[in-house]
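This section describes the prediction task in plain terms. A model, or a person checking by hand, is given the sequence of a single protein chain and must write out its three-dimensional structure as a string of tokens. No templates, partner chains or ligands are provided. The sample shown here is typical of the held-out split.
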Amino acid sequence: MIEHIDRLPLLQFHELVNRAPSPWLVDGVLRETSVALLYGRRGSYKSFVALDLAASVATGLSWQGHTVRASGLVIYIAAEGGGGMVQRARAWAEQHDVAPFTVNMRFVTEPLTCLPDSEDMDVLIQRIQEAIDWHPAGTIDPDTGYVYEHATAREWPALIVIDTLARCLHGDESKAEDMGAFVKGVDRLKVEFNCAALIVHHTGWDETHERGHTSLGGACDTIYKLEAEEDPDTGLTLVCEKMKDSREPEDIRLVRRDVEVSRRPTDDPNEDLRSVVIESELINREARRAHILRVLEELGPSTWLEWLNGSGLPRTTFQNIVSELRRTGKIIKENDVFTIV
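The expected answer:
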């Protein structure tokens, strides 16, 4: 069993000086026990990015080249419904070659009222306590007779995701009182389980900042804005607008990729099961470069059109990678025929 850390300790000056800075949950991206905000306009794939990050924490797999320092249980509140989340979760597991039962995540697939004293919050906390085998302070270990001074659990959550704020807030998000009550609800979860929280939210009317009262941004340790281009090959840009007590990291370039999702016996046979996975722009480009070189090797010397058709890639994407391969001397073109050097 793992004890909950002491709350509200009185630290002496030298103890504070010698304490290590808040450790990273995901290296350079998200700190342990922090409150983070991920916002973007509608259709910017922010929920896909949130799930991708959460699943990495739940498995310990690096997230887009960033090491997961403290993997653990993730609670994901999919308040906009679990229908689309089914295909997203399948796609993530299949593309990462991970058995679903090894992903340490629990989902809530309905909206709830995120207030510190709401019935929904009490039920949610109880559900999480049951999942982690929580015991209150004073519990006696049946094997050793040891009396725990603090609350204990088999494991404590590493991250709780609230997706989205709009479906978990009671009242008007533009009012300081209502937004403040939501933040207090998030704080209660953070304190109860000593974990990080990630809030997924929408942009305001002019898309330059998060929607709602400014008290939300003030309460967050970290704020990310997700910017999406219309062209899927142009990709996504994760811009850090706030990183408390640290320098904001450089923009993180991501791409979205359409994938087929495996069918289960209970699925509707007429439904087209597809989803999107999120990838690092660099890793994605390297994979595509290796792919089209492999295609050319299998085809042998080929014209541009023959090679394009064999690759299955969009025309613009293919042309960009071919131009890069020619610049770096990986291929040559003679009499309109391409050959690997």
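For orientation: The first strand starts at residue 2 and ends at 3.
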